[in-house]
Amino acid sequence: MADRRMRRFFGSATSGAAAAVLLFAVPSLVRPEVPAVQTILIPGVALELSFRALQPGEVILVKRREDPSVRRIDLRLRTQTRRVEFDGKSRTVLLGIDVAARPQSYFMEITTERRDGSKENVFRKLTVGPKEFPETNLTVAPGMAKAPPEEAERIKREAALVASVLGAVSPEWLGEGPFVSPLPEGEPFPNFGQRRLYNNEVASTHMGVDISAPEGTPVRADNAGRVVLASDLYYSGMTIIIDHGLGVFTFYGHFSKILVKRGDLVKKGDLIAEVGHTGRSTGPHLHWSVRILDSRVDPFSLAALPLE
Q: 145 and which of 6, 139, 198, 259 could share a cystine (Cβ 3.0–4.6 Å)?
């Protein structure tokens, strides 16, 4: 039962969805075959976007292109806002397409501020295509399908704690280059976005990836950041959340042992915990998930991107 905690902590999704097409207002760009990672230019704007696909649960990397006339560019896509600075060192700018996003066209608002003080505001259309997520029906004992009533207050308290942690956006990027798997030798299950039924009743959508490994296997930080939660939670057991800055968080659950504490600064590859099956889990594995602002995304979508 390593999944229902994400419905509590990161929200739930009930719609599945498959394949993405990119379409800007002018000109139109259609990509019927999506490569592992593709990069496209935004017409008339000094930016480029990299992504595996424009689909629910995917991540978009925004990078600037050299233009000496530009001071900064502000972006807004759905509820997410980002600023791309053109003075000094380039920084990581990420946008997420939530796993529950409807497949349709969304407008990205782009405001370019130039060095002469002028501003230009344009809209470009991004078409998010549908994506089919897996589905499974599990038969379990009634006590495993639903939390007992006496745990309701604890679950509510822990959900509020996690929500407050994820709501605190650090103003600086703390990461160091690309994200990596916290268990590179483990066996990942293709279960991101999986719609799970328990005893023929819809219970949750799985918002992360489960990686199988023996109990006690060391787990390492997928990137540099600050530990903002290291605690034992009802659903995810021994849990760690790392803040990578700018609203990017990674979540790790079901540990047998936690080796860091809240407030610790970790580097990519640092040992943070050991695999276990604490919380609502039937066997040893790591639950790994990613939150970008208010979007729940596939961790391997983030790891695929060429971050500087």
A: 198
Average pLDDT score, the chain = 86
Instruction: Collapse the DSSP code of 139 into the 3-class scheme (helix H, G, I; strand E, B; otherwise coil) and give the result.
Output: coil
Tell me, yes or no, whether 187 lies in a domain. Answer: yes
pLDDT at 128: 97
Give me the mean pLDDT over the 120-141 stretch.
Answer: 88
Say yes or no: 62 and 191 in one domain.
no
Residue 101 backbone zone (phi > 0: left; psi -120 to 50: alpha; other: beta): beta
Among 130-139, 237-246, 268-277, whose mean pLDDT is lowest?
Answer: 130-139
Burial of 172: CB neighbours in 10 Å, binned 0-12, 13-18, 19+? exposed
Q: What is the pLDDT of residue 11?
A: 35
Angle at 106 between CA 243 and CA 196, to 5 degrees: 60
Domain that holds residue 71: 38-127
Nearest to 272 by CA among 238, 304, 236: 238
Least confident of 5-19, 24-38, 55-69, 166-180: 5-19
Show which of 100, 127, 154 is a domain's final residue.
Answer: 127
Full DSSP string of 77-99: ETTEEEEEE-SSS---EEEE--T
